[in-house]
Amino acid sequence: MTARLRVVVVAPLRFPIRQPHAGGLESAVWNEVRTLRARGHEVSLIAVEGSDFLDGGPTEFALPTLDWPAGARATDSHYPDAYLERSVPALDRALDVVARHPDRYDVISNHCLHGLPLRRAAALGVPMVSTLHTPLEAELVEAVSHARDTRFLAVSAHTRREWARAGVDATVLPNGIDAGDWPLGPGGDGLVWSGRLVPEKAPHLAIAAARLLGRELTIAGRVGDRVYAEEHVLPHVGEGVRYVGLLGQPELATLIGRSAVALGTPVWEEPFGLVGPEALMCGTPVAAFGAGGIREIARTATGMTAVPRGDVDGLARAAEALAARSSAEPGFRARVRDAARRHYGLDARTDALEQVFRALVAQRPTAGLIA
């Protein structure tokens, strides 16, 4: 079936959907829109101003930027008052456009972390697929009770089990990685850590593991909690630790591909853990705390070892063993990449997502696929 789908993607409200990506969620949404458009689908994006892919859509689909007031402690764990005062009402107006013209759209792909799209789902006149990217959150759990005619996807079996406790039946569809964007790298001697600099990602524990091994560590990513970063991460820069900030995707892939091992140090129940498959796609093995969905990635991956959460000594031992394999076994890095392509390739994810969309459209009384 080759008919073109008309999709509305609802992004999270915190950051623009563009490179360099503010986080894994923004990266996943960006890749979904880009890939669906490349396959010929008509995709409209509801997202923060400054996002890619807002071209040609209704003006209401461009949501206000979310700025912190002067002097406030900006963190990824909280929202400024403008979130409820400006961002959510703007999203409501964007959904009004969809509700007024349901014949223009075939399906809604919802990635928003606010419950409004779920609460309005039954009245929009367009079937919705909502992806669960987070642990259980009270506001979202309450919103789910209103979400009739909504199909739920979960980024990992761990996340599916979490939401099953709230009565949500979800299908597992992991995030996908574009193999072309994350090419096989030659490896190197140093370690790499990438992600948001926030307490729950705990890059300070990667620093501790690197020091146990006497290997240089490069940290790449956006500061998501300035106080945490200034107290626990940035003071160590220059002592065998480099901090290179938020890199564009090509620069980040080059850095990871030239590293011996990537470290993952989440101290919360990670719903998925995109940075692991990204590194594996570059052929770089991964040593990580086995928190949440990361355990699943480690079970299916070649070249990834999960240790108990918080076990810095175990993390260091796992990293050294993986580095030794990488340097001693011919073709090891290529095998790491091949396994990542099989399990986490973006094309396979998009194939599955299209099937979900088409199944919902087929159930719609007035299906409107474009030939």
Detail the topology: elements first, then pairings.
Elements: E1 6-10, H1 24-38, E2 42-48, E3 62-63, H2 82-100, E4 107-110, H3 116-120, E5 128-132, H4 138-144, E6 150-154, H5 157-164, E7 170-172, E8 191-194, H6 203-213, E9 217-220, H7 226-232, E10 241-243, H8 249-257, E11 261-264, H9 275-281, E12 286-289, H10 294-300, E13 304-307, H11 312-328, H12 332-344, H13 346-363
Parallel strand pairs: 1-2, 1-4, 2-3, 4-5, 5-6, 6-7, 8-9, 8-11, 9-10, 11-12, 12-13
Helix pairs in contact: 6-11, 9-12
Short recap of the structure:
By secondary structure, the protein is α/β, with parallel strands linked by helices. 39% of the residues lie in helices and 15% in strands. The chain has 13 helices and 13 strands.
